[in-house]
Amino acid sequence: MELKIALLPGDGIGPEIVGEAVKVLNRVAAKYSHTFEYREAPVGACAIDATGDPYPASTHAVCEASDVVLFGAIGDPKYDNDPSAKVRPEQGLLRMRKSLGLYANLRPLAVFDSLAGRSPLKTEIVRGADFLCVRELTGGMYFGRPQGRSEDGNTAYDTCVYTREEVERILHLAFGLARKRRKQLTVVDKANVIATSRLWRQIAGEMAPQYPDVQVEFMFVDNAAMQIIQRPTRFDVIVTENLFGDILTDEASVISGSLGMLPSASVGAKVALFEPIHGSYPQAAGKNIANPMATILSAAMLLEHVGLEAEGRAVREAVNRAIEAGVVTEDLVCDGGKAHSTTEVGDYVAAAI
Ligand code: IPM
Ligand code: MG
Predict the structure, then answer these.
(1) Which residue puts its alpha carbon closest to atom 9 of ligand 1?
(2) 8 Å CB contact between 262 and 107
């Protein structure tokens, strides 16, 4: 297969972890006789530094002209600590999602058996957890307008907006995915308080008869936050709005033992984008210590997305072998184990394919 892959390494540890995923993809290409053609483009703080824009038109053009996008991370402390900054790296990510039509973010959470003991939660609670969080990605409070400050600067406001069309398309996707799994869908909302949640709940109720084989339940987000760490094995597919999905998936990552293990796929229109769910971890940038597994697993999702199932599986198995052999970065080291570098982990995974 010939595949055009846009590479958007971004900020912080982004270039290092994307570099390891490319190493693994190249190994897959060699072993299975595929041709992967890469085109790199800037996004985030590095794009602001270079062009003044966190998502330049030239980067958008590279994404549009590609089959898939592999993205690292964005964010820089110099913006986090400056609430008055008019241009922010995160705006680049949001504009990229919106302009590529990526309305759904799929965040699978599964516990590698060999890592069950790494979770801060009890092993018997996390073992066997395997669920998929479907996060709406281009609506809600992230994009609702008006958003801003009053003239005197003492009042700030955000607006949460969802249209029927936005809710229906994400719910259809989630119902369909539940159908391919254990056929259980949890719609997470705050319908006891907010209007958009009541719209979600109403529409999910209307759609349920079209998917008679899927069992639907509704759960308030505060309760979901508790159940995700109390009884993670009870979930199959969770679908929720943008902000709730952002928060719940960071929380869910503790089940897997490290935020550095969770990949994601953003889908919707023509081009799909694959990215680790963690951020740019600026403290680790350039030190060759960051965990590349989430990005490597995102590359596995990328392969599966384009129909290369066996190749995706081979990548997952190689990751598993690295973990079992103890070839992991410092965030996953068990007592007495040695912390390996980012490049050592990438080398091992690539060689294990
Ligand atoms: C994520 C991140 C982003 C988000 C930030 C960097 C804007 O936290 O992908 O989960 O909130 O969507
Ligand atoms: Mg987040």
Answers:
(1) 277
(2) yes
